[in-house]
Design goal:
5-stranded antiparallel sheet, single chain
């Protein structure tokens, strides 16, 4: 291992009902290049942002988003980033973050 960070994945809760474009514009490495047909994610070769659909969000007053960033410029791959953001967002939508405590 060379200790270089090649992928960063995160989740963010946002209030004030921002749109996906606003979230993407505030993220490093996320370019407004490609948009999903359903409008739930934006991705490029080095980053992506997606809205997580939660049945019962932990924070019902906020919206949950996932973020993928690829800091290494030589690792840009829009197809791979799209697959990663889709899988990560799907997994998060069935996690504890999307289940309100009873």
């Amino acid at each position: 291992m060379d200790s270089k960070i090649v992928l960063v994945a995160g989740q963010e809760w946002w209030s004030d009902k921002p749109n996906l474009r606003q979230i993407a514009q505030g993220q490093a490495y996320v370019e407004l290049e490609q948009f999903s047909d359903d409008g739930n994610y934006i991705y490029s070769g080095r980053g992506a942002v997606a809205k997580v659909k939660c049945a019962e969000p932990m924070r019902p007053e906020n919206e949950l988003f996932t973020v993928i960033q690829v800091p290494e410029p030589g690792r840009a791959d829009a197809t791979a980033v799209k697959k990663i953001i889709t899988a990560f967002t799907t997994a998060l939508s069935s996690s504890d973050q999307c289940t309100r405590d009873s």
